[in-house]
Write a structure and sequence with these properties.
The complex is a heterodimer. By secondary structure, chain A is an all-alpha fold. Chain A contains 9 helices and no strands. Chain B folds into 2 domains: 176 residues, no CATH class; 144 residues, no CATH class. In chain B, helix 5 crosses helix 7, helix 10 packs across helix 12 and helix 11 runs parallel beside helix 14. Classes of the chains: A mainly alpha, B alpha+beta.
Amino acid sequence: MMQYRHGTLAAFEQLYRRHKNPLYRYLLRGCGQAETAGELFQDVWASLVRARSNYQPRAKFTTWLYTLAHHRLIDHLRCLPRQPISLSVDDDDETTTPAALWAAEHERPDAQAVAAEQRLNIRRALAALPIEQREAFLLHEEGGLTLDEIAVVSGVGRETVKSRLRYALVKLREALADV
Amino acid sequence: MSEPELPDDRELEDFLAGRSAVSRAYRADAEQQAAPAALDAPVLARAAAPVAQARRLQRWRLPMTLAASVVVAVGVLRLAVNEPAVRAPSIADAAIPAHPERALGDLAATPEPASVEAKAAPAAPALAEVAADAPAAPAPPPPESPFAARAGESRVAPEALLDRKRSATAAAAETRANVAIAAAPAPEPSVAAPTTLAKATDGFSAANSPAPAPKLRSVFEKSTEQSAPPASVQLQGNTADAAKSAPAPSLASARGAIVSTAAAVAAAPAVIPAPNATGRYGPFVLGEATLTAVAEHYQSEVGIAPTVGLSAGADGRTRYRVLEYADRVDPRGPAWFYFDAERKVLASVAVSLRPALAISMVEAQEMLAAPMQIQADAPAACNAPDRPVANITVHYPQYRVYSQRGVYLLLTAPDVVSEIGYFAPCG
């Protein structure tokens, strides 16, 4: 990021390639809509570009990036009426899953079916989680943040984050057990 | 229906370490979902915009830096070229010692007879000694005529001359401030003290001393301008005798004493009126220089002959032998030399200013200060009475006569001086 701040565009491209997919998934799982996720995704990177001159490497770049994403996502969700998040439009779309993945994991058709059902249940369970629990889970899974970093990004205490993760794990574990 | 059991710390740690089944299932699903490639272009374009702008600015940085450097260098060069003309040191500056008090001590140590007035003035004994010593110093060689020297050069603007005097005055004021600390206390109002102090200034008169001590003149005049006018008159009025024998370096060394003397006199009320003084124009002393001497001087020094004629005196009876010189004699304008027909000596010199100058500039240049008289006519020559006119202060043209300096100014309009005259008093 410091290189990009000093005018090296290649450094930004490297950062972008490294973080674009996890960030997009974080936003997609957070808001539940691919189109909205795309807009939020661009907004987050635009915020990063605008804030480059003030960037100070006080913490991990990932923490800073997901802090921007967290704020943008929360702003978006606050503008929406309070309602449970729906499944992403492509969640049930089997065509989005690369066919090679099916062939690479298991050769047995029943095993492939079980795995697909597990992923679908995970998505559904994740979408059903409260936003606080879902975000804590996503920040860890997509951003790779620790408890402390999640606490910083979310603006809550460390124990609060642990509690949210515990509740999230219970519900996701149940979704896996149903398969 | 029982509440599901929350995972313990170990299970949470497994999750945080990526070892839980939930993590594996989620990652297996997440790996299949990537950000749409359509988002890459706008994001990268937005990131590239400020970088490109910075590169454009970077491209102009070197030329702009070079251009700014050239501008600054040219400016500095021009300043350096003009600097010597602006800050040309005067001869008097070079003659001023760094420690005027020390120079004063040197003068005081010279074995010369002290005057009675000096011994009778307890308020400023050292100054009295200086007064006694200064005239006794060996006389310097007669100075070369400043106007004759200028005549061979390009014409110097009166404003430039004024600037030189101003710079000298400013430097003198700074020195005066330093010396004033050690100045003697002001004497009691009496006749003796001003007389003694006046002796101290013998040979320093601005009106009578030769040109090589302009610095000293500026110091002296500056002091007298700030003091009570009658006191300054007293100082100048008693300087008529020893002016020609005053050595310029010694005078400059004693500047601190003069300043102290002037400051002391300023505190005392003046009781003696100013007598008339003899004017001086270049190397010529009014009332002494002869027609032949003046004509020969300009013939030999400048190489020009005058236009000779006769002119009526101010009283309508006296006739003058007049020598008229063009601008080469005085850069300020043509000069007329009036010679007393009876005594055969130079009676007055009138310089017509081209262009006319503000009276403040002329007074500063000529070191003129109050008191002065306002007359309708030029100062009368010998044997011609003054003819003051009522309400002359509001009529122009008018003459402002500084008798204590032997100088008059012709004002053709308020604050506009068109002529400077130097004259000798009658008797």
